[in-house]
UniProtKB/TrEMBL annotation:
Organism listed in the record: Champsocephalus esox (pike icefish)
Source organism superkingdom: Eukaryota
One Gene Ontology cellular component annotation held by this UniProt entry: cytoplasm
Protein name per the record: Mesenteric estrogen-dependent adipogenesis protein
Length: 215
């Protein structure tokens, strides 16, 4: 198994450096003095990756809509729903290790978690099982908020935890096994309705989460 890239029929996990060096089909990487610009085909891929820095260089996915997607009308929701049920979804996730040696509270908030490696994770949303879960989760979130504004988090933490158990050597070179803490192992849909008194959204009652699984 390649130490920097692992695959599953429903999911691919690739180290950022490997992704930039050998981008998958539908992607191309432009190298600049300041960093990298990643181009993708929006007809085939749904990229949900915010700009980030790697090795002090800026990485920008030009066709990305970001990890938190805002929708303000039915057309935008319908378009995003279609993409979520048909395209390969790309996310950036970080495998981290808790730093228990940090004592100072202020420092702890900033340095308690150290990034071990960053990965580009892709999910095949056109896979029947993934598509069924996504559709079910989207329908549930809409029906439960009755036309109001809402926030929906699609969580992949369990998927990554299961993957890490079988791929610990990919995450770290340490001899002792590390159980990573996953950062950004989710993406968010925010829908804003035009309801005049959107009390449930104002008071945080319209937040929903569902966990995506591979099996």
């Amino acid at each position: 198994m390649n130490a920097s890239k692992t695959s599953h029929s429903r999911m691919r996990v690739t180290e950022v450096e490997e992704f930039l060096k050998n981008p998958p089909d539908g992607f191309s990487v432009e190298e600049l003095s300041s960093g990298h610009r990643v181009h993708s085909d929006p007809e085939k891929s749904l990229v949900l990756i915010d700009d980030f820095n790697s090795c002090r260089r800026e990485i920008v996915f030009l066709n990305s809509v970001g990890r938190k997607v805002k929708m303000q009308n039915l057309w935008e929701y319908t378009s995003m729903r279609k993409s979520l049920l048909s395209k390969r979804i790309y996310l950036l996730m970080s495998a981290c290790e808790e730093n228990f040696s940090v004592n100072d509270k202020k420092a702890a908030n900033e340095e308690r978690v150290a990034v071990l490696k960053r990965f580009v994770v892709s999910i095949n949303a056109n896979d029947p099982f993934i598509k069924w879960q996504m559709e079910k989760g989207l329908d549930w979130s809409i029906s439960s908020v009755a036309g109001e504004s809402y926030r929906l988090d699609i969580d992949l933490t369990e998927i990554m935890e299961n993957w890490a158990v079988k791929n610990s050597s990919v995450i770290t070179d340490k001899l002792t096994k590390v159980q990573p803490v996953w950062r950004d192992a989710s993406f968010t849909l925010k829908y804003y309705s035009d309801a005049l008194f959107d009390f449930a959204h104002w008071f945080g009652f319209s937040k929903r989460t569902f966990c995506l699984r591979l099996t």
